[in-house]
Structures are given as C-alpha cells and as structure tokens.
Amino acid sequence: MPATVSHVSLSTGHTFSKSNTAAIRLLAGLGVEGDAHMGVTVKHRSRVAADPTQPNLRQVHLIHGELHDELAAAGFTLQPGEMGENITTRGIDLLALPQGARLHLGPDAIIEITGLRNPCGQLDHHQPGLTAAVLGRDAQGNLVRKAGVMGIVLAGGAVRPGDLISVTLPPLPHRKLERV
C-alpha cells in the first residue's frame, strides 16, 4: 500500500483537537496556514512561556493513522485531528524515520521531520488513560513516544486527503528522532 495522507486538520485557536478539512496549505518556514501553531518561532504555550524566541520546530504535527487503529483496539474512540495533528497518514512508519527525513506530500509540499511529539497530560483530559496508551517501552526498556512526529515546512503547497507521500532520507549517519 502506498503511503498517503488520510486526513488534514487545523485549528485557528490553541485548542487540543483540530478540525478536519478538505485541504490545508503549508507555507514554507511557517507551517499550516491559519493554524494557531504557524510561525517562525514557537507557538506552543509552554514553550512560549520558557523562551518565545525559540525556533518553531513544531510547525506541523503528523500522526500515523495506524496509531488510531491501535488505540481503538485498546478501547479509545478517536478521530483524525483529535490529538492535535495537522496531517494523518497511512502506510508510513513515521516513528522509524530519522531526523531530517523529508516527506513530499502531494505535488509541491515538503516537510522535514524534526523530532517526536512529546505526549502531555492534556491527552488524559481528553480521554483518561490516553497518555499511557501513547507511551511504550522497547525491548531494552527505553521509553517509546508514539504520539506522532513534528516537522518544519521546507516547500509550501496544498495538502489533501488522498495525496501520496514519498520520503527522502538524509545522508548517513541517520540520527534517531528525539522529542522536540
């Protein structure tokens, strides 16, 4: 199955969930047009409070739709966009990508993956137990964050459900994703 965009979402306000829409427009160096997290510098409230001049490495939030399937099997009821993601994907292991991987979405848009989303307690306010459900442990006991990846927009363009996704990997050695 080819990697595709299944849903696109945005919110003009600092809300937990984002509304699905027919298309989003990515703006180079800024993020999703009209989304509260768009900008050159950080827009997430906790990061703004710490240092509002930090570069915005979280312009776009992507979650693999397979996580929604996993959570549904565990008894959670979630729709795309509900965990704050802008782009929900299918057929691509976002968490296995290295830092600097580039996702080509549709004919024009390119996102560079900057790191992992760090799940926060707001998930439990949305649905009790959700934070623990998006965290796991690998075979060595290391924490695994499953709540998606964050990226910056390198090339703008419209992104719609059904758009194909291709990946360009950065030069070796690859750097494992860390939380951003």
From TrEMBL:
Q: What molecular functions are annotated in GO for this chain? A: catalytic activity; molybdenum ion binding; pyridoxal phosphate binding
Q: Which domain of life is it from?
A: Bacteria
Q: Which PROSITE patterns match?
A: MOSC (PS51340)
Pfam families in UniProt: MOSC
What region holds the MOSC domain?
A: 19-168
- Identify the InterPro entries for this entry: MoCF_Sase_C, MOSC_domain, Pyrv_Knase-like_insert_dom_sf
What PANTHER family does the record tag this protein with? Answer: METAL-SULFUR CLUSTER BIOSYNTHESIS PROTEINS YUAD-RELATED, MOSC DOMAIN-CONTAINING PROTEIN
Q: What is this protein called?
A: MOSC domain-containing protein YiiM
Source lineage: Bacteria, Pseudomonadati, Pseudomonadota, Betaproteobacteria, Neisseriales
